[in-house]
Amino acid sequence: MQQKTFESGAFVGGGWLSATGDETDPALNPSTGEIIAEVPSGTRREVDRAVESAREAFEKTWFDTTPAERSRMLLTLADRIEGNGEELARLESMNVGKPWPVAMGDVEFSADNLRFFAGAARVPEGKSAGEYARGFTSMIRREPVGVVASIAPWNYPLLMLAWKIGPALAAGNTVVLKPSELTPLSALRVAELAADIFPPGVFNVLTGRGDPVGTGLVGHPGVDMVSLTGDMGTGKKVAAAAAETVKKAHLELGGKAPALVFDDAEIQTAAAGICGSSFYNSGQDCTAAARVLVHERVYEEFVSELLSKVGEISLGDPLSGGDVDMGPLVSAAHRDKVAGFAERAVEEGASVLAGCEPSDGPGFFYAPSVVADVGQDAEIVRKEAFGPLITVQSFGSDEEALRLANGLSYGLTASVWSERVGRALETARRLRSGTVWVNEHTNLASEMPHGGIKQSGYGNDMSAYSLEDYTVIKHVMAKLDYS
Ligand code: NAD
């Protein structure tokens, strides 16, 4: 396919800025390893221009818009995304290696998310205004934070864009969005699609690397809030850098989700559900069931069902026209990182039940992989591999299951598989995770929050809670005139 060269990666103030640096970042097709585009790598000068533009737009136009006006624009963007869905899904598939149903699912969910925030913007919640001190009247105002720097990862480029800009714009903020340097293509296309929807400077897109563009945004005095979705290590750096200027931070970080299969679980359903979650998007999903914990009484039966489901996964180039369940990993470096986890685990005595092989030939494929005989202290259990590589451990009691599940610093998602309602709900209550599913491990809804606890971050995506995250509270108190 013909390689595309972008003249600009900076959609700023309603138009494209000429690139100020000489460097570019290649966007690859991970199924073939081919470069499909060269995208300018942003500079600090572009960061300054984008932040200035977002600030001006916030102060001069966007702050005065009504929820209804913002809502209409978000609805138009949702329609455009849906109307250009096949093209956007193709970009996602080409640049991330997503199977077609995953890529189209991302498009539909992105549009749904923007529509949710278009509605939510119009139904704010608030405490009663009133006289809380004699002779004074008080009101609480929820106001936009200001200029938001939104920094996105590569695993769901379009969906993360929607999760970030939906609540930020709906709440009345202006945005500078930095997509991942690995997967900028859908964000650049959305910038084009949005060009005539929002006033200039309200929605800006800036391509480039974590440093200088991400660091430049986080440190910039003109940015009021930073919203990062990324690795836990990046989150710590961003939180520390944001603290320098006391910026509000919203951190959606990694996960290492446990799936707890009890001895009263419906084993076939659990195996199918966990397999579906673990290898969706090639396991490059912060919510993926990465640590499967199984009661020793049903361990053999469950593992046999799981391996049979894993054996049915078809691996291939999503754009080859065949039926593909799982595509490649995003890059050679990431594939090697995932492979490294498996190799070190095997050196330490783990057993390979499936996969653990990079495939030959072009593209960054890695077979769906299952590893057993691992202890709670093993690196493969404790650290996020973020690929199609899962571990299976057994437990003997509910207490032990919870100890293993809660024993890491991650706390993003978890699932409980049990036919006993009381046991499932008690386990859900005691799991230290931002989301707990019962007899399910993946489903999300725009109305419901998604966010981590512990070192998986703070703040929520989706739902009315996310809208609140993108606001500040102001108390206005006025002296009453009794005369
Ligand atoms: P990453 O942390 O490497 O990069 C994320 C973004 O941060 C990129 O745009 C990158 O350029 C930028 N960045 C890197 N260093 C930076 C710095 N010092 N300052 C500012 N910006 C910087 O993560 P990734 O590899 O792109 O994404 C995978 C990670 O994202 C995984 O850990 C995954 O679990 C997590 N993730 C979490 C969620 C969630 O909802 N919690 C969703 C998707 C992905």
Average of per-residue pLDDT values: 97
Characterize the overall form. globular
- Low-confidence sequence ranges: none
Number of helices: 15
Strand order of the largest sheet: 3-2-10-9-8-11-12-20
Q: Which ions, cofactors or small ligands are bound in this entry?
A: nicotinamide-adenine-dinucleotide
Strand content: 15-25%
Could you tell me the radius of gyration in angstroms?
23 Å
Q: How far from one another are the termini?
A: 78 Å
Could you say which structural class the secondary elements and strand pairing correspond to?
A: alpha/beta
Major beta sheet summary: 8 strands, mixed
Compile the SSE list and pairings.
Blueprint: E1 4-5, E2 10-12, E3 15-16, E4 24-29, E5 34-40, H1 44-60, H2 67-83, H3 85-96, H4 100-120, E6 130-133, E7 136-144, E8 147-151, H5 157-170, E9 174-178, H6 185-194, E10 203-206, H7 210-219, E11 225-229, H8 232-244, E12 248-252, E13 257-261, H9 267-279, E14 289-295, H10 299-311, H11 332-347, E15 351-354, E16 369-372, H12 379-382, E17 389-395, H13 398-406, E18 413-417, H14 421-430, E19 435-438, E20 457-458, H15 463-469, E21 471-479
Parallel strand pairs: 1-5, 8-9, 8-11, 9-10, 11-12, 13-14, 13-18, 14-17, 16-17, 18-19
Antiparallel strand pairs: 2-3, 2-10, 4-5, 6-7, 7-21, 12-20, 15-16
Nicotinamide-adenine-dinucleotide is lined by residues 151-156, 178, 180-181, 209-211, 214-215, 218, 228-231, 234, 237-238, 252-255, 286, 384, 386, 412, 450, 452, 461.
